Amino acid sequence: MSLLDRHVGFVRALREAGLPVSPAEGLDAARALLVVDLAERESLRAAYAATLVKRPSYRPGFDALFDLWFPAATTAPHALQDPEDPRDPRTGDTVADLSERADLSGGVDPGTAELPALRDRLAELLLDPEGMDAFARAMVERFGRQAASPGRQNWFSYPVLRALSPETLIARLLAEVLAGRERGGLAEKVARRRIGDSIRRFEEAVATDVRRRIAEESGIERIARSAVRPPLERVDFLRITRADLANLRREVHPLARRLAARLTVRNRTGHRGRLDFRRTVRASLSSGGVPLAVFNRPRRPHRPELVVLCDVSDSVASFAHFTLLLTYALREQFAKVRAFGFVDTVDEITRFFTPGADVAEAMTRMAAEADMVRFGRTNYGHAFERFAERYGDAVGPKTSLLILGDARSNYQPPALETLRGLVREARHAHWLNPEPVSQWDTGDSLASAYGAVVPMRECRNVVQLAAFVEDLA
User: Fold this and answer.
1) Taking each helix axis from N to C terminus, what angle separates 186-218 and 115-127, rounded to the nearest 10 degrees?
2) For 3, which of 19, 176, 300, 373 is 20 to 30 Å away at the CA?
3) To 10 degrees, the CA torsion angle through 213, 217, 219, 223?
4) Whole-prediction pTM value?
5) What is the band of 107 on the pLDDT scale with cuts at 50, 70, 90?
6) How far apart are alpha carbons 470 and 464 in whole angstroms?
């Protein structure tokens, strides 16, 4: 594969993984290759990162794809054949490979040494990581190949880490680093952090080489699609994990401010306020009673009220977690926020949004205390009817109504007239659906029916939420 082919494939893989890379940035990266030493792999990595990576959160995915498209080593028979550099008939290693292994193995042959000797060498590398990557590649070669199915073998990180057990070396390394100094002090904390970082580096080196070997056998494009997790702002709300929720808060709060600003702008019927009759008549005295200048009363700043109606059924549980995050953020931007959750009946859940409360704990309390379930099957129609009956006064001429859910009602009556009445009472109404548009109106989905009453938008990730906020202007 030529360098141009690798460059084009690498940029395409970044885009497919969700990293925003424009054609102009791809050209900038190609120009950067003209001024760096291509033999220096880390210089090549830095050149690509400087031209293609916009945010720190994109870097892990970038590094994983870079290691696939520009690997540190190539395993025979995928390496370029060189008649001047014959290979070992047993392992396929070149003379250069054997020289590198001899230089970086500390006198230990990774292919034949006993396991205690290999663990001793790993302990040395955890304190002095020079040569760790080469050692990790050798360990994957020795322990990483496993029979995945009859007649087929694959590569795995777990057997390597199980054989060497780097975590079990911590006590030994601490004793060596501290060398008789008092335990429990700052020196031990620093040493633990250093050793922990080295262990994580070794584990990542093993995982990187495993991905490289799988890519050589299965194709880079295939492994690239599964090896890289999309950036946080492109993670599907329905697949979000608890670990992502804290990070999402940083993304949601700026969007909440912009959403409040957009809804405030849309609440204005014009840029000028009502006519100030007294000032207009007074000014007309200087022109013989002709009102040449018209004065208007200044508009008062308006912070809209918001009602959030959220489906919290199991089918959209992860989206409901995000909804709580959004509601937390919106409380600071709107004059009044009331939140309601439903499955097949509805209850107000605003009381669970106390400042500083954990989202997971709020979900647990909601499940135990809120009255949102009768029979356990989602019923949008009954939920809308109960909302209009019990909380109809929550929606008024100053209210923006925001509905969040997948519009799947288990083939129950949709109560469209009830929803139309709520929309007529509200100043604005919007529906965010976490399902792809391609799945709307399939099975028990009533997306089109509800979309005819309330403007419905696909909202599967933060990027689409940001687009919805921008379109409100």
Assistant:
1) 120
2) 19
3) -50
4) 0.62
5) low
6) 10
